[in-house]
Amino acid sequence: MKDKFWLALCFVSFFSQAELTPKSHTGWLGIDYQANVGIDTGYNDNVTFQPDPLYASESFFYRINPEIRMIGQRYTDTYVLSYSGDYLKYEDASSDDANKHDLSFYGEWWLGFKHSVKLNLDNTINREQRGRELTEGLLPSQLALYGIDEGLKTNFFNGEVRYNYGAPEGRGSLQFALQQKRLDYTDLSSVEQASSDFYQYVLAQEWVESSAIVELFDKYSKVSRFRYSFITNHRDYENQIKNSNEYFLVVGVQTELTGKSYIDFNLAWLYKNFLNNSDSDDFNGLNWNFKYRWQPVNYSTLELQTSRTVKDPNESGGYIKDNKYGISWKHYWWVDRLYTRFEFLYNDLDYVNMNTRRNDKQYTSTVAIGYDYRQSVYMELSYQDLRVGSNLVTDTFYIGENGTVPVNRTLGLDKSLIMLTFKVNI
Fold it and tell me: Which pTM was predicted?
């Protein structure tokens, strides 16, 4: 798929989540330290995203999310080193226990009043959830057949160097960036021993993406900012028939319409072509990301979002049009600490130029009640429900040296999760 991200147990919220106000501690050499830890516990009724309730495994789970950040400053230069972890353990599904480790570095050096260089380095060691990404729609018998006795381990690297021309508090800036991303699957010995065909299929999904970016930012006023970008991505897969080029022209705006409403809108024209696959049609069309936030009173916030992106499928040929539409409402009640949160997300996935015209629809609903003890402590009880349907019962893809071994994905699923979250600054 496109970039692999950690999916928090079942699905990532489309909306902004509560963030604690950072608490800094100044230590050796004047370095500021910030740390927090989150603790989750709950119940998951379909750990491996099975389409048939007969195969669904249920389990209570525990999760710990530590974060630590070290911030150093020398004159106008800034250095940030951070680590975040995600340690997940199931009581009755230990094969799906997972750990995530993310280590990142950010540095900014000013070479003069209007010239600066920024460096971003990020490396994430993760594990895909069984039943998602490459193992989507695989039944327990298929997971056993291909040696997938735990989630596939991944290593994702993202590095960027960026030059900025513009004063720190000036109206605008012109920026040039070079970026590279890389996804690798690691520790595949059990898959290789069970099925050399599926092992080669997994390796074929590894990729390296190189990007060049030119961006102009215009701070038109105190409440309005415009963005104009040209982005080109070249992605090389181990399966070279999937190699592609992407060219984006992006126009964006962030603004407060009134003191109570806010818009963040990016509209992009995308041209995508496949270098080694004459059977795949090029994509030429619009992508977008639109967010509207309305806060009529200081204790109630309504948020609307919609987006469209074009993603690569796991198989060769074609692309996926990913359309999302969501609404969220957060309201503080009698006191300014007790709140409720409601979210609904509709996700339409249209598989274009594939062997079969597949269309998936996902419905995610979230209800939560929380309490902010103070700016550095909060707790929340939430319930999430995921429904996935498709116009197809099964979808077949092919593995093997000549692509002659069929593998069926069984589509559609129901899944729910109840979770108690506690988070505190240290």
Answer: 0.91
